[in-house]
Amino acid sequence: MDRTVNSSRSFAHPLHAILLAFPVALYPAALLTDITYLNTAQIQWTNFSSWLIAGADLFAGLVVAWALIGLFSGRARHSQGRGILYLIVVAVMFILGVVNAFQHARDGWHSVGTVGLVLSILCTLLAFGAAFIANGNTYSVEDRT
Amino acid sequence: MSRLAILTAPLILILTGCQGNSDPDLDQTGERPELPEQNDALVPAMEIPTPQGWGDDLPTVPEGYTISAIAKDLKIPRQVLVLPNGDILVAEGSGGNAPKLRPKDIIARWIKQRGKSSVEGGDRITLLRDRDGDGQTDLQTTFIEGLDAPYGLAFVDNTLYVANQDNLVSFPYTEGAIRITEPGRELTKLPAKINHHWTKAMTASPDGSKLYVGIGSNSNVGERGMDVEEDRAVIWEIDRETGASRIFASGLRNPTALAFDPWNERLWAVVNERDELGPQLVPDYLTSVREGGFYGWPYSYYGGNVDPRIKPARPDLVRQAIVPDYALGSHVAALGVDFASDGGLGGQFSVGAFVGQHGSWNRADPSGYKVVFVPFTGGRPRGEPVDLVTGFLKDGHARGRPVGVTYDAERRVLLVADDVSNTVWRIAPKVASRGSPTTQAR
């Protein structure tokens, strides 16, 4: 065979990337509804935040499971250092997200507060960070014969 | 992985370690309850004693008193009324249709459901008749059916008034009737949107001209928005002739039972206060109700103790908030009140108020689950409450949960509705003298 193959693959499987898209969209959305609630005291905005965070947590949990399994099989095993970093980022995001869900289960003004806002900001940043790690290129292979 | 553990350990501590335990030294009953600091934990303490049958056991009453079941197999009995001829009416049902606004609502409903009877509410009134005066029920029959979560009952001028969860209806009554089939006449609609707290407690004024209906709030502390709290957390005064209504008092989070005292003929209410401020906040209370009075909800409790969960704050209203007369304990869920008149049940239970306490969910150490007696002196509650009926909890299970309490002055007995064992209990003093006609009543 006489050919040269340059294959460049992203770290995450496309399905995995779809799962990760939910936290990436929903945590920042919750951050926006939190800010709106703090500005207006209109209760419906914190209700929105609750559901957005619950949805983000659900998918974040699936992402964590995938990241964990991915350490031992699949694409990430080719770059274990990055895999571990990714797992830490999504795991912390998930745990903070669950804490934030409990925070938003408090009643009235206490449902957001400083703690809720900070958690929403952290989850947003971690979700973006996870997306950069997951969707950046992991390795390129050159096959020459 | 150890890095992960280091990162998450503090979070797990936050999750589990937030809710403080109850301080047993805190005195939370009486005229001046001790109120701890607010503790709005991330995960509120919860303990739900699940239902379990009585077997051959009975609830516990003090020496010198007897207790017996006079009705079983009811469908969620709530409040009890004694008619002039001694027949006993029991309102049965379960209401509320609050939509689930947050993920929390779904989870909270599931948790609280575990502490309830699996029987479906009867939406009816059952009649109990004791033909020979021996304290046993000889006839148990459906008196009125097709109601909508009936709760409050009142009898004035040969007319029975029933407070459904959405309206107040009247039924003409002829003495000795054991069934009413014609539909009731609607005297007035009652606030029924959402019905987060659906029970419509009711009593009639001593002169019979007015009916008073307790209308609970549509939230714990305004978390559904204040728009849905119009005409909620109030007591309505309703003209019995015309059905015209007005707000008699407000800021009463969930007034679950109403009664007039026999000494000064003032209106009293037991009120369930708010949750999720800690295991010892906020004590439920018994209070006389002042016309036009504001009792704090949702902006404050026990006068000027501001609740920071409700925004925008209303310092103008907090300044007016009345301190209730008598605390019953935090999360006891008082659902019944009636006064002992004319010597009551004797002994310690002669002058005062009986209070049925359904029992807590929002604390790790259950409170309530009993019937207590609040002694009165000079028309005011004085001193510590005295346990009258206990033993509802056993080994972490609830064998029953008291709701309405009704004192039958003529027969000197207390009737207690129990919506977990679906029973009506009858408590009476043991008859001391032998040979008297009532001895055989046992």
UniProtKB/TrEMBL annotation, chain A:
Residues 13-128 form the DUF2231 domain. Signal peptide: none annotated. InterPro entries: DUF2231_TM. The chain crosses the membrane at residues 12-31, 51-72, 84-102, 114-134. Keywords: Membrane, Transmembrane, Transmembrane helix. This is DUF2231 domain-containing protein. It comes from Aurantiacibacter zhengii.
From TrEMBL, chain B:
It comes from the Bacteria. InterPro entries: 6-blade_b-propeller_TolB-like (IPR011042), Beta-prop_PDH (IPR054539), Quinoprot_gluc/sorb_DH_b-prop (IPR011041). It holds the Pfam family TrAA12. Residues 59-277, 322-425 form the Pyrroloquinoline quinone-dependent pyranose dehydrogenase beta-propeller domain. This is Sorbosone dehydrogenase family protein. It comes from Aurantiacibacter zhengii.
